[in-house]
Amino acid sequence: MADPKPNGGSLFRIYRDVRFSKDKSPYKTHVGMHFRHANASETVHAPGLYLHFEPGQCFLAGGVWQPDPRSLARIRDAVAWKPDEWRKAKRGLELGGEALSRAPRGYPADHPLIEDLKRKDFVASVDLSQGQICGRRFMSDFLRSAGKMASLLQFLSEAEKLRF
Known about the structure:
It is a single chain. Helix 2 (about 85-90) runs antiparallel to helix 6. The chain has helices at about 70-80, 85-90, 115, 130-135, 140-150, 150-160; strands spanning about 30-35, 50-55, 60-65, 95, 120-130. A hairpin with a 4-residue loop joins strand 2 (about 50-55) and strand 3. With about 160 residues, the chain is of the alpha+beta class. The chain has one domain (about 30-160).
């Protein structure tokens, strides 16, 4: 879902939080947009897509970033209980983000998908070139990249009891 609200919508603010930063420059050097699941109550932490524009680093990411504890437990349970569906959902994607160093509580350390169960973020990304971003085919490139993440988004949405 694209939310057009000027505050709290899909487009992230351009101002940096400089309170605890050594770098006091007031503006970000990138533009970020989040397209969350339409039925999610959370905004940034819900299943969705994130589009990032920055000189030399443009990408589209999809998945769930820093889910709340209840959502994280649901996703981990879905990975553990539906291993074949999970493998199919993440096929061809490299997941990034933070992970625990040890197995989460309630899961055996020798589980075949323990590396995925350790995840705190379930996010994949596709790099986009400056030519793609500035080109006439940007929307088709965007949709093709988003399509690569559709099965991951579907798995994560269903794990969180959201209709895909």
